[in-house]
């Protein structure tokens, strides 16, 4: 593979190009009219404008992208995440034109893209799943008995949904019929497929996902798990690896289950298997994402594996160069997604020009972004500005470094979620690891960030509490020398 095209934009396009360059592979960027001056365009060896700003007319135009690839003699196309990355028809089109799709087969994308066929495939491999209906449900009378058996509340899910779309909780039998009809109607209009199924509702789950990697020769390994429970309305906020709740035995069990899910669709490349984990650490297969994920850096940092390089190597037919036994967890990594959103105003997306933009640096810090000072954040795409990743020898050091980096990060001109991130990672329940998918809804109130001073004092108090909890000696010393982290934070207005 001598030249690859990256069918994406922003931080992930840049991320992929960097690995390609290290491998001596030429890169082609495609871009919309809104991204003409973006770093990903400048970084590439060649760049082609493929249309107006809207995704539909640019980054989703698979036909145009393949045309560009053919014209420029491209050998492979990397789809990144989002856009065309889980589009089986696009993967097929790429291959039909004699170009390598750097990702799984169209068949694997199809199987895992539909929740019911994913569960059906996984069932043959004895993967633990939440009790529920066998396949799609048609009429309410067919499932009443089942729901009574598994117990309320139950959850109705759309087979074509995913990421929380098309889900409905049913609290009691009298709501079943109405909720089912609504769910079917919604699924039909939203996804063009009205198939729904039922699962027992797991009340306080953790969301843990396993990174897997497969080659063309039937080898699949797991690169451990990511804890992704801290999310807001299905938008992830903080991810970390490894999860602090798993024992080595559970880690092995969930990792091996993820590998079996991969085997169930003959998976090739980098993929992620999502699980719900309950309070007793029982885990249940939810769905599989057949792409490189936003939060892949935390897995890279604890495993030492460059996932993009591995994707490319596997796509060009190489065998995995390591086995499961070669893989060990090194330290701890945390990722904070920095969004151009206003946490004080219901996370309303904010657009405009980045006036100051100064990235944190130093030990253990990695920033994956696609912006620079003076650039406009376009309204057309995802509002993520950057991924701030901190690595430490253990979780405490990773949190400490993340806090230090948040404090160094200077973003003005566009409202952002940095302070919200500081709130999360210093919260006692986050620090102790005792949190689930309800963390943000349960603990966060915009008032905490409402007034600049109040917010900083709030955060300062949390930081002080965090320091005290983890390092009583250091906290005592800090107080006695009158140099507490807290007072510094109150003074520092760039936070
Ligand atoms: C569930 C669940 C509870 N019980 N399934 C949401 C996203 C989609 N991948 C599956 N999701 C859930 N499925 C059962 N049987 C709770 C969720 C859920 C959730 C899962 C992961 C991360 C965040 C979440 C937030 C709300 C609900």
Summarize the structure.
The chain has 495 residues and is an alpha+beta fold. The chain contains 19 helices and 22 strands. The strands form six sheets. It has an eight-stranded antiparallel β-sheet, sandwiched between helices.
CATH architectural name of the largest domain: 2-Layer Sandwich
User: Can you say what the CATH homologous superfamily of the largest domain is?
Assistant: ATP-grasp fold, B domain
Secondary-structure class: alpha+beta
Q: Regarding CATH, which class of the largest domain?
A: Alpha Beta
Number of helices, counting only DSSP H or I runs of 4 residues or more: 19
Average pLDDT for all residues? 92
Distance between the termini: 44 Å
Q: Cα-atom Rg, whole angstroms?
A: 23 Å
- What order do the strands of the largest sheet run in, or round the barrel if closed? 13-12-9-10-11-14-21-19
Cofactors, ions and other ligands in the entry = ligand MV4
Counted up, domains total 4
Strand content: 15-25%
Strand count, sense and barrel status of the largest sheet are: 8 strands, antiparallel
In percent, how helical is the residue content? 25-40%
How many strands in all? 22
Categorize the overall geometry: globular
Parts with pLDDT < 50 across at least 5 consecutive residues = 475-495
CATH fold call of the largest domain: D-amino Acid Aminotransferase, Chain A, domain 1
